[in-house]
Design the sequence.
């Protein structure tokens, strides 16, 4: 019933983007997010789209696959677009009852749609080329300085990695419990809301109790393997910045400069 | 050699809010010399897991001392030192894996110890190779089988370079084949590296591998010695609710019935037991000749309730066909690159009043097959007819599920109501039965599985493990299904718990129920079933009366299964005892057959 869930849609491939240090990729993604909100000029959008296209091509992930991640928020994009089209000022080119679409609004709407699409496309490139566990790991290392002021960076990362580890196990368990209860007559698809809610109780209660039992056992197992927090731990996986990460940083820097030039400086020049 | 583990007069009480503490370990002494392999054998609740936790400093003794590798577990900081040297594998394979990939998980221990990275890398590679999981290094652990997960747990410990490994019922959730495979691997590793091994278990097959066996009951040591010393006291071990190796039990029964004492240590190995049986028979032949007209011998006293109830089964070849499966196939993830054929061209019938055993090792398609028997999976291709109803696409699933009760593995994990009564009533209520009928059925189902009326108003989560299992079974029985499908009903239970559950199964059959029993225990199937269906890689390898199927040893071996232990031992004797009927599936029946053959009687 629930076998098709895929979490963190990592797309395995061997590409320059996949090989980048996850910390570099996270930073680059943050920079790209800021830049897309700076974008206003049509040329900035063109440059941004071209840059994203190059990144996607380099990652060797089918373009269709990248745009699949845009699909869930397609509704939001269309809504934002229409809202802008009909709320702009100036000359209307279309009137539908009390609503009038303006040229000004159309441009704003297009910009908004492009911004959202590019935002999702570039940030999904991070999760497509980096396993969730690497993302969690990189976050831990980047947050490490914050530990001195009491931010639980290691604990957060450990929680995330255990959650990732147990998602498939819990999906399997949910499937099993649902089957067992259905064979006792539980019904999850028909009947009124109350009946369905009652059906859910018969799944959720054993699932929660099972999870608490698992948590308990896992905690003991971790203790038995000498776990006592992040203090003094070493790691199997080392993250070492490579020359290619330097290249990526230089490219990002150049692209950021280009965006700033397109947005602010070009207009100031004669 | 110095003692690696030294438990002196240890006591452990579990504290309970507002109630008296429970004494789990009661003045236990246990010493294990470095490099020894000791099995701690006991029923569920005998205190053996608590003892393991005391040794690993996961619990501290209420009284007495626990010293491991020179560290007293009560001293500050010694827990850390002890756990570095003494790794522990737990029962549930899923709940001890931390890493999101196999190699990450193996690295977890060394990472905690602060081992430098290049050394972790080396330790991970060496440990994975040692347990045979190198090719899975980058897999997510949930894709491993249960046996592989437990091997992963061992690799995680080996990577910490331990002096001792504690197995806390590490094999109780594995099937017999994986269990053997796992134990063979562990024993080879510890021998090679001189690691001390303490195996806490209720499986006597594992205990016989040890240098020394310690038997615990109610928190106390009740027996200790070499495996053959301990198991020779067949009656004492049996009365602790534990199993005895079949060859020892058969030799013991034959000797007792012939009144010839066995020599100490004589029956330790199957070879020894074979010689002992022949010696006993030879010694009495002369006497028997003189007593030719003596009265027939009394039946063996050791026969358990299960065996007694299972005995009078006469399969009714002409019984009404309740379930008719024809040409059934099933493929998981059909049409994708991950397509996995689980069943192929499976055909069989279940007749009213019979017990059909379904045997096969893990991954043979047993679970997929039973899900077709009550409409959880729909047929494609093939036809499944259940009491005349079509369970293929479009059939009335509700009606089918009321007629076929399906009990999943570890059914106690599905309990959810506030009271046991509510849980047992869930099914009948869903069937829309009136209140008084529901109440009647709850009482009836509870009585069949032996739940006391006062237990019905307790929360299911307060019950003991065995009681939970019984409550879950009652939850299916209360729907009064015409066919009961049981998927490994005894999984994870100790021998006494297993016998108890299996005795319910045979008493249900005595009431006319039709049962499909799925199990990877050949012993359980041979004892209970009338007919057996052997699945292998999704295909029916053999299907027929139990005796017919088990007489085809080649087919059994091809399915990766083995003969039930008593029958396997009789096969050895058959060369020396002409006319011996080797197809006996309990120790008592096997002893009868040996005596009958020795007396020159025709096998019955």
Sequence:
């Amino acid at each position: 019933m629930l076998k098709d869930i895929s979490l963190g849609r990592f797309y395995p491939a061997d590409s320059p983007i996949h090989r980048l240090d996850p910390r570099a990729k996270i930073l680059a993604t943050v920079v790209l997010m800021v830049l897309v909100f700076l974008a206003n000029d049509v040329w900035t959008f063109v440059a941004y789209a071209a840059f994203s296209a190059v990144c996607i091509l380099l990652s060797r992930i089918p373009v269709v696959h990248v745009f699949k991640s845009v699909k869930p928020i397609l509704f939001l994009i269309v809504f934002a677009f229409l809202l802008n089209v009909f709320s702009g000022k100036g000359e209307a080119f279309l009137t539908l009852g009390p609503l009038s679409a303006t040229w000004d609004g159309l441009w704003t709407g297009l910009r908004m749609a492009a911004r959202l699409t590019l935002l999702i496309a570039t940030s999904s490139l991070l999760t497509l080329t980096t396993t969730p566990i690497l993302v969690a790991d990189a976050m831990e290392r980047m947050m490490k300085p914050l530990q001195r002021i009491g931010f639980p960076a290691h604990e957060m990362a450990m929680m995330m990695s255990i959650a990732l580890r147990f998602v498939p196990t819990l999906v399997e368990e949910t499937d099993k419990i649902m089957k067992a209860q259905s064979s006792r007559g539980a019904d999850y698809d028909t009947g009124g809301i109350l009946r369905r809610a009652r059906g859910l109780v018969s799944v959720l209660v054993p699932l929660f109790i099972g999870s608490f039992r698992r948590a308990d056992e896992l905690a003991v197992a971790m203790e038995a393997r000498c776990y006592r927090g992040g203090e003094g731990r070493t790691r199997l996986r080392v993250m070492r910045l490579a020359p290619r990460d330097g290249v990526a940083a230089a490219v990002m820097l150049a692209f950021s400069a280009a965006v700033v030039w397109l947005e602010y400086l070009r207009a100031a020049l004669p | 050699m110095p003692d690696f583990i030294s438990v002196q007069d240890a006591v452990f009480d579990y504290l309970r809010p507002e109630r008296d503490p429970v004494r789990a370990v009661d003045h236990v002494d246990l010493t294990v010399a470095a490099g020894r392999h000791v099995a701690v054998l006991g029923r569920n609740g005998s205190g053996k897991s608590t003892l393991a936790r005391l040794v690993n400093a996961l619990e501290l003794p209420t009284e007495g001392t626990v010293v491991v590798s020179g560290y007293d577990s009560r001293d500050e900081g010694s827990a850390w030192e002890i756990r570095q040297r003494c790794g522990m594998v737990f029962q549930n394979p899923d709940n001890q894996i931390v890493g999101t990939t196999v190699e990450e998980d193996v690295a977890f221990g060394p990472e905690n110890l602060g081992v430098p990275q290049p050394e972790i890398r080396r330790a991970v590679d060496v440990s994975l190779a040692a347990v045979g999981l190198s090719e899975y290094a980058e897999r997510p652990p949930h894709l491993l089988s249960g046996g592989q997960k437990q091997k992963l747990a061992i690799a995680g410990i080996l990577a910490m370079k331990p002096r001792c490994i504690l197995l806390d019922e590490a094999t109780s959730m594995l099937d017999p084949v994986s269990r053997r495979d796992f134990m063979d691997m562990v024993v080879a590793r510890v021998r090679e590296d001189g690691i001390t091994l303490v195996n806490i278990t209720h499986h006597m097959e594992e205990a016989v591998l040890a240098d020394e066996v310690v038997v615990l009951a109610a928190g106390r040591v009740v027996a200790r010695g070499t495996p053959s010393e301990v198991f020779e006291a067949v009656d004492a071990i049996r009365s602790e609710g534990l199993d005895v190796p079949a060859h020892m039990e058969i030799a013991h029964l034959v000797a007792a019935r012939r009144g010839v004492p066995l020599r100490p240590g004589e029956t330790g190995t199957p070879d020894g037991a074979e010689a002992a049986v022949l010696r006993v028979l030879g010694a009495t032949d002369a006497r028997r000749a003189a007593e030719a007209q003596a009265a027939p011998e009394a039946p063996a006293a050791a026969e358990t309730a299960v065996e007694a109830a299972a005995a009078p089964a006469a399969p009714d070849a002409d019984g009404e066909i309740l379930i008719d499966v024809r040409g059934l196939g099933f493929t998981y993830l059909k049409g994708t690159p991950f397509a996995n054929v689980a069943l192929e061209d499976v055909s069989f019938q279940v007749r009213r009043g019979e017990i059909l055993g379904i045997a096969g090792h893990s991954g043979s398609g047993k679970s997929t097959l039973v899900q077709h028997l009550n409409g959880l999976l729909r047929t494609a291709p093939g036809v499944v007819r259940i009491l005349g109803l079509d369970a293929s696409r479009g059939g009335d699933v509700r009606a089918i599920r009321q007629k076929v009760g399906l009990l999943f593995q570890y059914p106690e994990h599905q309990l959810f109501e506030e009271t046991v009564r509510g849980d047992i009533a869930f099914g009948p209520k869903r069937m829309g039965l009136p209140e008084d009928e529901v109440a009647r059925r709850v009482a009836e189902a509870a009585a069949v599985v032996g739940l006391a009326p006062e237990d019905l108003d307790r929360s299911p989560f307060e019950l003991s493990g065995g009681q939970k299992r019984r409550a879950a079974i009652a939850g299916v029985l209360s729907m009064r299904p015409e066919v009961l499908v049981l998927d490994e009903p005894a999984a994870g239970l100790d021998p006494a718990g297993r016998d108890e559950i299996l005795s319910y199964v045979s008493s249900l059959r005595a009431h006319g129920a039709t049962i499909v029993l799925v199990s990877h225990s050949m012993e359980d199937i041979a004892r209970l079933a009338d007919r057996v269906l052997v699945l292998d890689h999704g295909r029916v390898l053999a299907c027929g009366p139990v005796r017919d199927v088990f007489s085809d040893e080649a087919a059994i071996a091809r399915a990766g299964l083995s003969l039930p232990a008593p029958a396997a031992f009789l096969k050895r004797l058959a060369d020396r005892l002409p006319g011996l009927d080797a197809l006996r599936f309990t120790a008592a029946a096997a002893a009868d057959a040996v005596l009958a053959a020795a007396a020159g009687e025709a096998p019955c």
